[in-house]
Specification:
Blueprint: E1 3-10, H1 14-21, H2 28-34, H3 38-46, E2 51-56, E3 71-74, E4 78-79, E5 94-95, H4 98-110, E6 116-118, H5 125-135, E7 145-150, H6 160-175, E8 182-188, H7 205-217, H8 219-223, H9 227-234, H10 242-249, E9 269-279, E10 282-290
Parallel strand pairs: 1-8, 2-7, 2-8, 3-6
Antiparallel strand pairs: 1-10, 3-7, 4-5, 9-10
Bound molecules: 3,4-dihydroxybenzoic acid and fe (iii) ion.
Fe (iii) ion (FE) binds near residues 12, 59, 189, 237 and 240.
Length: about 290
């Protein structure tokens, strides 16, 4: 049986990718960001997953106003880093896991979530920057990745509650796959930020801190927060944070019993927590939770 053993949460600030690609990690400004991932890089080296289910958002790179899937699962054999205007990042191509992805699509759609199946997609900083933060600059990414794209760019966006419930369905899907695979689920994006308009540059540390607290101890409470609260308190791009709830919903304390209620297992262990302001226009937030 496949198992979700841990969840990783991180911002995806594109300037972090540029700092790595341009050899600026040693500069004091960036050192403060990258030191927050030293523990994580060692931890993932010592606890390598067989597959990463990577929840991210596309930034009008693979999708555009022509087509806006709310939830899209990548079932391809590989994904090329996208050209986001300065050429593709010099990072390895992302290898997929089509068999497990197809199984998850089948199971999650049968659990009443409408997923878009994506057989061809380029992946932007939303996916490649989290990989870079956790793995540095390898010749090849150490394991296959199932990209799972969520629309948090064009309204209407999915609610936090729907994201949490989707995470629960993903866990059930993974656990019904009959190969012994250790799966990590990553929730990416955030933290508070706004990139345009009169409030450009907004960062709300109090909101971010409370969000991280509730991700650990009260995800059901966080799931009840309406999207408009994210936009008001955390800026127009702060809504990216709802993606963290998908990963959190897949942790074992929230899995449902036969009666449909929470199975109420022990809460996950907090292996690592990091928060730093600023990186580019946002705060960087990072958590690693492990199933107890
Ligand atoms: C920035 C952050 C993002 O999440 C993004 O997609 C683009 C830019 C920034 O902080 O500059
Ligand atoms: Fe973003």
């Amino acid at each position: 049986m496949a198992r979700i053993t841990a969840s990783v949460y991180t911002s995806h600030v594109p300037a972090i990718g540029a700092a790595l690609d341009l050899g600026k990690t040693g500069e004091p400004y960036w050192q403060q960001v990258f030191q927050g991932y030293e523990f994580s890089k060692q931890w993932i080296r010592e606890n390598p997953p067989d597959v990463i289910f990577l929840v991210f958002n596309d930034h009008a790179t693979a999708f555009s106003l022509d087509m806006i899937p709310t939830f899209a699962i990548g079932t391809a054999a590989s994904y090329e880093p996208a050209d986001e205007g300065w050429g593709p990042r010099p990072v390895p191509r992302v290898i997929g896991q089509p068999e497990l992805a197809a199984h998850i699509a089948q199971s999650v759609i049968q659990q009443d979530f409408d997923l878009t199946i994506v057989n061809k997609m380029d992946v932007d900083h939303g996916l490649t920057v989290p990989l870079s933060l956790m793995y540095g600059q390898p010749q090849a990414w150490p394991c296959p990745v199932i990209p799972f794209a969520v629309n948090v760019v064009q309204y209407p966006v999915p609610s936090g509650q729907r994201c949490l419930n989707l995470g629960k369905a993903i866990r059930k899907a993974v656990e019904s796959y009959d190969q012994d695979l250790k799966v990590h689920i990553w929730g990416t994006g955030g933290m508070s930020h706004q990139l345009q308009g009169p409030r450009a540059g907004l960062i709300n540390k109090a909101f971010d801190t409370a969000f991280m607290d509730r991700m650990i101890a009260d995800p059901e409470g966080q799931a009840a927060v309406p999207h408009i609260d994210y936009v008001r308190e955390a800026g127009s791009e702060g809504i990216e944070l709802v993606m963290w709830l998908i990963a959190r919903g897949a942790m074992s304390d929230l899995s449902r019993g036969a009666d449909g209620r929470s199975a109420g297992g022990p809460p996950p262990k907090v292996l690592h927590r990091f928060y730093h302001v600023p990186a580019s226009n946002t705060a960087v937030g990072h958590l690693i939770l492990q199933n107890s």
